[in-house]
Each structure stands twice: as C-alpha cells, then as structure tokens.
Amino acid sequence: MTPAPWSDLRLRIASAAIMTPLGLAAIWAGGAVWLVVLAFLGGIVAYEWIRLSHGATSAATGVGYVLLACVSLALLRLAPTGFGDVLFLMLVVWAGDIGAYLTGRQLGGPRLAPAISPGKTWSGAAGGLAFSILAGLAVAAGFGNPRPFHAGLIGAALALVAQAGDLLESGLKRWSGAKDSGGLIPGHGGLLDRVDGLLAAAPAGLVIRLLAGQGGYLWA
Length: 220
Fold this sequence. Notes:
75% of the residues lie in helices and 4% in strands. The protein is mostly helical. A hairpin with a 3-residue loop joins strand 1 (111-113) and strand 2. Helix 5 (122-142) crosses helix 6 and helix 6 (148-176) runs antiparallel to helix 7 (191-212). The termini are far apart.
C-alpha cells in the first residue's frame, strides 16, 4: 500500500520544532559554540556518508565534502556580518526544502530526476526555488538592507546549488541501496538527509561572501 502523501508531516513538524530553535541559537552564539556544534554535527554527517559509501575513495571524498562545508560555515560566521550571512544561507536552504516538500506533495507532476530520486518533481523544485527567494528577501529586509534584486538573485542561486546537493545525496543513497542515510531524525531519516542541500550551498555562500568584499552582507 502506498503511504499517504502527508503521512510523515507530523513527525517533520515535531522534528523541525526542536531542531530549528537549537540551530538558530547556535548561529546567534557564534564563536566557540558555533565551532563545537559544527564539529559535532559534521562528525555525524561524515559518519553517515561513510556508511553509505562503497570503498575508501567514496568515503574520503564524502569526508572532504563535509569538511569543506563545515569550514565554509565557520568562516562565514567569523565575518562582521556573519550572523546575518549564515542566517540568510540557512533560511534560504531550509525554505527551499519546505517549499519543495509542500508543492511537490500538493501538485505532483513530472519527475525531476527519476533515475536518481523518484520522489522529486519539477513542481517541487519550482516551489522550493520560490520559497528560497522569498526567504532571502525576508532576511535581507529584516536586517534593514533589503536590496531586493541582489537578495532574490543570490537566494535563487543558493537554492539551485542546494537542490543539486540534494540530488547528489539522493544519488549516493540510490547507489548504496538505502532509503535514508540513517534514522536519527524522526520524519527526516539521518542528519545527512536534512543537511544535504546545505553541504553544497555553504561553500557557494562563502565564495559569494568573498566576492562581496568587506562592509556589506552576503546578499549585498
């Protein structure tokens, strides 16, 4: 029997209600707290990647990929505008995940990449992109530096990179024959399932931050 399209919604909401405040608190704290959180969560994600890997090369590549994302997030938070920059990045990615889930489940339609992830649809990808742009605009406006064109454009770019990261992790699970990367988070699977888009978007965010130069937010 095919599960109902919203059967895991309550678990997802409950998990998000716990994880989101903790994540925001760590971003706000910055400093040693942020570094410890990154090291702890990065270790879990790397372990889950290794479990899905076949051979040392795949495992080492995954560990390097996770390490690059963690270093990117650490460096982003160190900037004078670090809180706003990391918040922008995280909310753009989270909003994209939520938008893809809601619109994909509601609208359905043609599959985005059936050979990699049969559950993902073009409608979900479009919805995720729209939610990410709106989240970027909201964060930028909240910091009193809206620059709507820049915020929307950078939000869209990060959303597309995050979606590519999501597909990369889906391909890894498909290759390993696993449905989820683990069972750590009810309704979501493993931690890698939850941060797959962020792993790809974090280095991209750091590059944008470096190109933006000093004195302005990532989206400026």
